[in-house]
Amino acid sequence: MAKIIHASDFCLGRQFSGIGKAGDFVRRALKESLESAVTLALDRSVDLFLVSGNLFASNMVSRHLVDFVFQQVERLGKIPFVVLPGVCDCLEENSIYRLLSTENRPENFYLLNSRQAPYLRFPESEITVYGATSFGEGTVATEQTLPAKGDLPGVHIAIVNNPELPDDACGSSSFGATIDAIAKTGFDYVAVGGLDYRQWNDYSYSSGSPETQDFESSKSGQVLLVEISRNRPVIEKCRTGQMVWKQLELDNARFRYSIELEEELLRHASSETLLRIRFDGELTPDGYVDLTALENEFRDRFCCLRIEETRRLETSRVRVGGTGGDTLLTDYIYLLEDAIEKATPELKPRYLQALVTGNAMLSGKDVIS
Amino acid sequence: MKLQKLHIKRYGRFADFAIDFGEGFNQIIGDNDSGKSTLVRAIYTVLFDNPATAHWEVHHANLSTMEALYLLHLEYQANGKSYRLTKDVATEMTMLEEVETGGKWNTPADVQEQIGKALGFTEKELYVASSLVRQDDLAGVELATELIRDKLEKMLSNSKDDLLVSRLLQRISNRLAQIQGKDDGPAGEIHTVEKDIGEWTNDLNSTKSKIVELLEARRGQETIGAELQAVQMAFEGKHDLFRKSKLALEAEQNLNQERDTYLEWGRRTKEAQESKNQITTKKEALKTLAKIERSDLRSAETLATQNQLLQSRLEDAAARAEKEAESARSQQPKGWHRIVVGFALLSTVVCAFLWNKLHDVIYVGGAGAGVVVALVTVVMWMSALAAHKRALSRQKEAEARREEEKDKVYKGTEAVEALLRRFNVKTVEEMGEKYEEYRDLDRDIKTLVARYETLLGNNNLKDMEVELDEMTARISQQQETFNRYRSYATTPEKLEQLQRELAELDKRLHQLQDESVNLENKLKFLEAGSDIMAPLQERIEEGDRQLRLLRAEAETLSIVARYLEEARRRVLKSSIEILEDEASQILRRLTNNQWRRVKLHRHSLAAEITADGDNWMKSTSSLSRGTVDALHLALRLALVKIISAETRPPIILEDPLLHFDRQRRDCAMTVLRQFGEDYQVLFFSTDRQYSDEADRTIDLNLTASTTASLSPVVSN
Fold this sequence. Notes:
heterodimer; A: 17 strands; about 25% helix; about 25% strand; elongated; B: seven-stranded mixed beta sheet
């Protein structure tokens, strides 16, 4: 029997999009997730620590990051730390794994280079690890052949970084086979990469990233503690992530006043939370909510706060008709509705916003502080 | 609102002055410098100024210090109530009191609010633009267009002040200035964000170029690393070879040295041992010999020598004694002396005799000769006797000496023999031999001892023997060492060659190490770049987002502003039309129907007029001064009617008809008197012509000094 930690897609040093300065916090959390995973490995006395791809977000990460990784690997002592280069940190000419001096590399750090050896063998624990390394652009799909399981005693684990997916930004890394096909060759466990946890079949799992990295990944923030025996592997999800990525779709109809939206925001507020709100529904001329002001006011309560306006204005429902009203407000609305109807698609959102803003201003709302 | 009484102190030329006003049309007549403008100003001041800040304003107005400390007291009626308003600069007091109820307001803000309600104006500029008509400020109405629009808007929309379009537009303008910046002011948020993005982009581009360098540096480091490793290995190998060769050479040298030392030491030890044995033997032998000192021998020899000498001297003395004896014997006087003497005497006698007898001189001579001979012989005999005596004496001495010498010889011989007996020798020669034997032996021993000690040095023989054993052991070790490195044995020349090669490798190693360190430092610098790429890109993205939001906000606000203006224009359109109508009516009356229609620009409220039957509108720039004044007067009066119809503030005019001709003046007075039916009109003028037509005429009699209390002359 063997006990391993299966982790994947740390993407250390990753650049994020759409979260501004929160990127620094998430990067730090990614590093801390590696620390947590190593601590877990030591606590649970595992035989192997395995990363099924994308330990680094790219091959241009800094030396400091590599030194940090090496420090964590050294903490494992004699527990092997096996890394399969993935699509992001592929083993190309400028790979981070190639270019840095190996003199500081811990002895228990192992890189799966399928061109040099088809597998790595660990006699003490009788674990053999197979993997098809990603070599970047120009990697021929046939190179990513199905690793053949050998006859050595003990446990056989296959590592797959990016299965069943076509070309990606880093170049070809797709296997010529599906996960099922791999599993059917008789590996005791197939460690698959990917940002989200997934059970492919009884023997194949994606661990998901140890720290959540976007709003769409809901099944990440953990590593897998896998006990491999003759029966099916037993999987335990162990939480390592700190950040909470939430996405809310709020309907304009629910929030007539800013204070209601404020209360909703406060419910989710925490320094580890990245919150994206899509403010949807039907926009009415008097439905003014200063989303920018709200975002500015509450941003310090979150790691990241984004409120996106996706409301739509049904001008036909709003039209007051006639030639205007007796008051400034009605005249204003009339004029703008007219302009909205005649506006080009590019300008229409501006006029819509102007309608709402002007309406709010004339109604005494604190539009401009 | 109707003003009833104004009491002023220390204001303008008035030290203490009171004036009562009546309802309707009040004409206040006064010559130049009579204080008309001062009174107008005083009304304005008491209604709008704040005593706490007044003295600064007054200084600005270039009045004297005395005038800065005014006290103004106004009694008025508004909305059916009576009020007393006091403003005292000296005590910075503002007080409004409602006479009937005793209600009081004593903060400037509260007082101003009440005044505003009474007048129908909170903005003094609007009051000045409408109801307060000063002779050189008729055109002031055109400067208050925004206020007028606000007032109209407020009237129409019942909006709060902060929701007036003008306020909203100001806020929008401020916000746009914040976003877009001003030409002569601080840069806007867009500019700031663009600048930040620019800096971050530059940093990012710089970082990207560093990334290229980084790749090259990493590759360079890999290459240097490999060469460094190879050179390191070569160096270590060669160094090991050098070390072992050197050890072998040293071991061989040490071994040889050790062996030489051992041989030398062994020789010395052996010699020491032999010396020791010889010394022992000789010492044993020495013990058997009598110790004859040199001094003893010398003594013996000396004695022997002395004895010999004495013997010799004895022999000499004996010989001498003999010789002296012989000499004495020989010197014994011979008888011949006697004979001779006798003969000589005889001869002498004879001769004498003969002479006597013969008186021959010969005989005298002979006698003399005989005498002489006798004398001589006597002398000779005497001397022979003396000589003999001396000889005898000498003989005696010589014999004494001989005896003495003999005695000495005897003693000497005795001493020598005693000495010889002491050392058990028979002769001095034997003693000498014995002495030499002892001496030689002793010398041998000393020599041996000296040699022995030289051989030992600071050691003793035992230590030397022990050292010899240790040397043996060391030699054995050295041999072992040498055997270990025998295969590396080399010559000194070859070792030198090896050392030179090692030095070359060391030099190359240091070069590579320096290059590696430099590269490492460069990498550290460059690596920092890759650390900041992601944050930079994120910040740029965030900046772009902010930029989009700001631009969208600016566009939106611009649209809002445009449409607010348009909405206001539409809303005010009717009000402006009413104002136009009213102003047109008044203008027709002021100009005796010469000018009939007033048209106001919808935005700027700039006025144009047209004459009867003429559709061509004329702006003020193409009108005469008198007509322009008439137009402005018409607008002001129209404004008063429209915007303060409920409160009906007092209309105060100060010589507004200066540029009116006689006819128009008459028309204007008629209009004003008609206004006096609904409003309190205070008409300040130098012209007494219309005083009879006023409801109340006040003649300012300012013939006394300004420090006296004055009361105007009033006629109703």
